[in-house]
Amino acid sequence: MFGLLKGFGVTVSQIPKKKVTLQYPDVKPNWPDRFRGVHKFNPNLCIVCNQCARICPTSCISLSGSRGEDKKLHIETYDINFEICILCDLCTEVCPTEAIQMTDTFELAEYNRDALYKNMEWLVENGKQHAQRKGLIGEASVHDANDTDEVAGKAGEK
Amino acid sequence: MFDWFDWSAHPLNVQTFLAMLIGSLIVLGVVLGCVTYAILLERKIIGYMQLRIGPNRVGPWGLFQTIADVLKLLLKEDIIPNKADKTLFAIAPIISYAPAFMVLAVVPFTASHLFTAGLDVGILYYIALSAISVIGIVLGGWASNNKYAIIGALRSAAQMISYEIPLAMSILGVVLMAGSLNIVKIVEAQKNFPYVWYVVPQILGFIVFLIAATAELSRAPFDLPESESELVSGYFTEYSGFRFAFYMLAEYVYLIAMSGLAAALFFGGWSGPLLPGWLWYVIKAGAFIFLMFWTRATMPRIRVDQLMSFSWKVLIPLALLNLLLTATWKIFF
Predict the structure, then answer these.
(1) Predicted TM-score (pTM) of this structure
(2) Interval B118-148: pLDDT, tens
(3) B50 touches chain A (CB under 8 A)
(4) C-alpha–C-alpha distance, residues B240 and B242, integer Å
(5) Which residues of chain A lie closer than 8 angstroms to B51, CB-CB?
């Protein structure tokens, strides 16, 4: 009988408490460092090994490259279809040079399905914006965003 | 100007009829405003009780949220299902809404009784009309030709008809105390001996009234007719657009009418110190409405197999006991 009144007391005591709502578009939560958002891509690091496209569970990555003067493969097109991408992080896991990585963006709502088919330029631009948000670079190029030598060194150790 | 709205003093001619029409339109406008902000307040209060902010994107503090919602509903397509009984489907919301609005005629919102019919059978009128709105709900559920709608409608029929009885019986105690069925006279009788609002001598009746009124309005914890977790939306599952808005409107107008009735019967209506009468009425009815929202944020839904036995085995005996005590009290004083 008095349990009912107790319940009323509980609900009314919630009113003055601080609200936990975040005003989402204006205020965003702090994403964890390993948040798996939309990819960024660094064409300078890519060695066109095709491992990302092979491991992708939804086959949403399609890429093509060509052998240049120096007998090295250079990436030409790199497209991710975000209609079916499940942001599972596997491409990043297998990438030997960390050319494809994930950022903290996730807002990909579009009015038509074609707009979700993102090409290499878009992914590079996304990487630039991500670096700016993180305060890693000012207006520098993507090439400086990832310290190429360090990454290459890491790749060499592997 | 105000005696122009005093229907009982004039014969029913064209002028009086026009005055009545204008008066009812004014009441409708006021009630729509009240409903708009009752809905907003409900969402806000429940939000605050759940550590949320509630609607706050449309206008400052979400003040235009409900208006935006209603506009959206009015622009929506009015879908009538193929297998539905089209005529009944179309008129059911109107049947549901009309009594909810009509009962406002006997609720004395001010001390000067503007727009209040001083019916000598006010209570009877109220109870009789509020029983009609069940028909609108049952018709709507039946005409939808949808299993969830039918289940909701039948539940609603069972629930509302069962809870009418304790509601009426709890009011009877007040009627015995005041010696009148006229709501205006009941409010005035609360100024006589024992010089307190009837909520004190009629506390048992008031508790029964509260529970029965909550069930009658089919609000939580008695929201079985439209329980979203079991039935999609209960009796208005198939409704959309304007007719859906009508059902929602009926529900909230009925809530306001019930709060007005509670304020008149148990809290002395417009009487109170310092402030004008209508403001006291708003405060008392508002407190009742707030209690309803508070209950909704607190209570889980009652189990469907306990619903009927609670009405018949608990509330009605309590209301009868209250009647007996009141009658005994009347004999000795």
Answers:
(1) 0.78
(2) 778 888 998 888 888 888 888 888 888 888 8
(3) yes
(4) 6
(5) 14, 17-21
